[in-house]
Amino acid sequence: MSKIFLKNITTSYCLKNVTMEASSGELIAVTGFTGAGKSTLLNVISGLTEYEGEVFIDGRNVDFVPPEKRGVGYLMQNVNLFPHLNVFDNVAFGLRARKSCPSEMVRSKTEQILDLLKIGHLKDRYTKYLSGGEKQRVGLARALVTENRILLLDEPFSSLDPSATIDLTNELKRLQNVLHLTVIYVTHHYEEVEDIADRTVVISEGTLCSLERPLVSFDPLRLISAGCY
Amino acid sequence: MDQRHKFIKLVISIFPIIIFLCLWEVTARAAATPLFPAFSNVLKESYILIKNGVLLKNFLPSFVRVVVGYLLGCSAGIVVGTFMGINRFAEYTLSPLISFLFPIPTLGWLPLLMLWIGINEALPITLIFICAFFPVAYNTHTGIKEVKKEYIDTARTLGASPGFILVHVIFPLAAPNIFTGLRMESGMVWRTVIAAEMFAIPNGIGSLLMNAESLLRVDIIMVCLLLLSIVCTFFERSLLWLENKTTGAWR
Fold this sequence. Notes:
The structure holds two protein chains of two kinds.
Chain A: E1 4-10, E2 18-22, E3 27-31, H1 38-46, E4 52-57, E5 60-61, E6 72-75, H2 87-97, H3 103-116, H4 132-144, E7 150-154, H5 162-179, E8 182-186, E9 199-204, E10 207-211, H6 220-225
Helix pairs in contact in A: 2-3, 2-4, 3-4
Chain B: H1 2-31, H2 39-51, H3 54-86, H4 88-101, H5 110-117, H6 122-145, H7 149-157, H8 162-199, H9 205-214, H10 218-247
């Protein structure tokens, strides 16, 4: 059974009849030019935007399930760390939102994920005192701590320098293996994920073109020859 | 260095006040008229008014009116502003009404309220309620509307319910705007209660001011003015302290 299945998804201003599936434990790179509909695709899966068509998660239709109940971790492009909370409280937010999680468990799980991402020393800092890379790590920790098995990443490392990006993408691959995550990774810098993606999907003007193997590099001429443009 | 900087800032801030008081003392002694008492005489009169209980007897009713009216007005303003901020229907229906009533000066309501409510304790409290309600409602509404949608979307994908988002995301992020409304009115409510007491209420600091005026007791008038200055500053600074305590670390 596929982890995520999108069937004939159409949105008012972007996607046109998109069908796509992601298997459990797969890392799919979604690429394409700016405005092609990459972020909209993630918003459809997470339930943040209206759409026509059907979305299935773990075989269950979630079209009428609100974002807070879809069980999808989502790291948005701007990370959107809450400025009024320190790093610990930002990461613990998702656990506290689920009132069933006792405070002792919130503490231990949060500390565990902070250590996993090597940001334990930042836990008392407010977000305005963090560097770009630290913010991305905190955002990733916050998306992971709720133990959703699906992780959506929207240009997560776009504001980082190349070496920090390599560092974090390798970290991501490690976490994906450890936590058995299904990851959809949106980027228009394909080079970021070419080494770690299991499959690449290209979105062009709202339609989708799937490539079985990762691209060697994001070359528009190759995509044209592959029938994507 | 930091301590030294603070000390210099304190000295520079206090210096003009000392100069002002000295000038006051010298000029008043030179003028030698009961219409312009010296600062030392005002201090002496303050001591007498505190000792015989007149100041406290008039201050307490004003204080209670301000606190009750302000708390009620602010609470109602926060509730209505929040409702307008999170509910589009409430925003569309209440926003024009509030925009229509907000510009009316608070004391403009006084003649109408005197006829409707009569001259009793409810009159100044209602006036203060009106004074606090509109700016707090307006600022709360604005603060909530200014919370970025991305934060709310992020909270939703983290599994937060609408109620949890309101308490843990929207209110804290709107707090700076809400505090602006609270602070703006913390001084204004004192001006309102004094005006109401001058015209319509037989006790309170405003009433004491009017009685002092009719007896040509300028020293008592100045005691009241000094007291009002101290109380208004205290109210405003307390709110500023609370604002810094709750939002200062992350802003």
